[in-house]
Amino acid sequence: MTDTRINVGEMLPAALVEQLRGWARALGFSQIGVADVDLSSAEPGLLAWLNNGFHGTMDYMASHGLKRARPAELVPGTVRVITARMDYLPRGSQHTDWQAIEWAHLGQPANAGISTYARGRDYHKVLRSRLQKLADRLTEAVGPHGYRVFTDSAPVLEVELASRSGIGWRGKHTLTLHREAGSMFFLGEIYVDLPLPLSEPVTPHCGQCTACIDVCPTGAIVAPYRVDARRCISYLTIEHDGPIPEDLRPLIGNRIYGCDDCQLVCPWNKFAQRSTLPDFDPRAPLTHPSLLALWAWTEADFLLHTEGGPIRRIGYERWRRNLAVGLGNALHADPQRADIRGALVSARDHATPLVQEHIDWALRSPTPAPPATTEC
Predict the structure, then answer these.
(1) 152 is annotated as an active-site residue
(2) Which of 197, 318, 349, 371 is 20 to 30 A from 281 via CA?
């Protein structure tokens, strides 16, 4: 049998990267880049972010320290990082005004806001398996080599690597932006010991725009390119496992799992690309549901409807906690909603202490806003 493996030393590295791009497209990826492993210039910013406590209760961020910015320490022998972009806007989102549709749904307090990416299959599963197939294809071509696949699953500076490898630029909301794809995509990486040619980074194109900073409901984007996770709705509804701070609950509105506001308002997302995969198609129960419909779920319903999806990872208790906040805000917006009040009251005595606390808050009248002052 003829050995069809490629000797990297005998092949033009650029041709190998071009082959990688072809294999990646066949697997559903939209873009491939190659980054260097010297991220030393990113270390001061990482340390400042950690020292400010902006990681909240995500203690693993601090425990990993600078390993996040040092790929060769995380995986010894790594000399390059293959970066990958996978678009996730659902295939059925054919409307060019999809952002307006999302805003309209969020504008109704009794509706449940769920981040677009979370309505289908868990992206960790999708990307990891397809990155592994891409790595296997590379191994078939060049022979055994050192590598490791990552998808938001280890101390990796994903946006930094994506920016350095031409996937896009870091937006002021800290997400990666692409001129022809916005920010509605996932990132994945393959650490390799192959000396592949580096991709050229792209220039940033945010200009003077501050739309993402201005729209953030909780003011979590404390400065351009700087997010305080402790105020971020995505962190509060997904990563944070305790009581949600009372002063932030009214600002969360009806967002019960994640928040897309900074992406919905971004002008570049009018170019967001539809996914080519069915994995990110929204499940019917999670397609623009009402808060009351989700509140009616038993734990068995929750496990059934979130099987294989990202929402399951927060568990039923946090799910109910988030819904209680959303229902409270809906009730505060319309105190005449007896159906919402009744649903909260009937669930209280059987709820866990964490959920009870949020139900009690939801049933209280909102604190009136202080009167506006005028200067003479």
Answers:
(1) yes
(2) 318
